[in-house]
Write a structure and sequence with these properties.
The protein is of the alpha/beta class. 36% of the residues lie in helices and 19% in strands. The strands form two sheets. The protein has a nine-stranded mixed beta sheet, with helices on both faces.
């Protein structure tokens, strides 16, 4: 089976790793993700991953915590490295060679982010996890995902969520919400649909990088998406 996309950037939320828990990492979710990612590397897809940190630390309101925004953002970046290490361990357990690169230097646990080295790893069939966001406060992991996808010349961003695409409203709250199968970048802006934060979204729009929003928690969906099946919502 030939994949439709040769090089993908998979964007996962930290919250998705919680499974049914309210905090931290659910080992069952980690294992499911690792097996789904292995399934697409087995057919020759080059995979880079950006993962959030919301299951461990969420940048909270400064007025409530007394922690200034920049400091809170750095704490969030460290949380993404913890998630990256967990995902790396899970992938290597199922036989997928993986490299973790961090935008913040921490030589004992991760390589520094070097664009050319990341691309070389991908060419050799290794999965590359990008940790610590962009390394700068005030930027989300969505923005980090868009930026890294453009830097490594990915064919598409696969945004794995808990819902199976983009809807007219939140399907978990509004039962009458209808799903879009395809949207253009300008339609997303016109309809005021939330796909990513605007910085991340604008980066994709300016660089003609398509985004597919799909349900990552259904086993086999990731393989379906890279095979070109109609799964989730395509924004292009």
């Amino acid at each position: 089976m030939l994949p439709k996309y040769n090089r993908v950037l998979l964007k996962l939320s930290g919250e998705s790793l919680m499974g049914d828990r309210t905090f931290g990492i659910d080992p069952k979710m980690l294992e499911q993700y690792a097996l789904d990612i292995k399934a697409i590397t087995d057919i020759g897809v080059q995979v880079a991953i950006v993962i959030g940190g919301g299951n461990i630390y969420r940048g909270m309101n400064e007025s409530e915590t007394g922690i200034e925004r920049a400091q809170g953002d750095y704490m969030g970046m460290l949380a993404t490295v913890i998630n990256g290490m967990a995902l790396q361990a899970s992938l290597e357990k199922v036989g997928v060679k993986t490299r973790l690169q961090s935008a913040i230097k921490m030589e004992q646990v991760a390589e520094p982010y070097i664009r050319r080295r990341a691309i070389r790893h991908l060419e050799k069939g290794r999965v590359v996890i990008f940790g610590a966001g962009t390394g700068n406060p005030y930027f989300t992991t969505d923005t980090a995902g868009s930026l890294r996808a453009i830097e490594i010349n990915a064919d598409v961003i696969l945004k794995g969520t808990r819902v199976d695409g983009i809807y007219t409203a939140d399907p978990e709250k509004d039962k009458t919400a209808t799903k879009f199968t395809e949207l253009s970048f300008s339609e997303v802006i016109g309809k005021g649909v939330k796909v990513m934060d605007m910085t991340a979204f604008t980066l994709c729009q300016e660089n003609n990088l398509p985004i597919i929003v799909f349900d990552m928690n259904t086993t086999g969906n990731l393989l379906s998406v890279v095979s070109g099946n109609k799964v989730g919502t395509l924004v292009s």
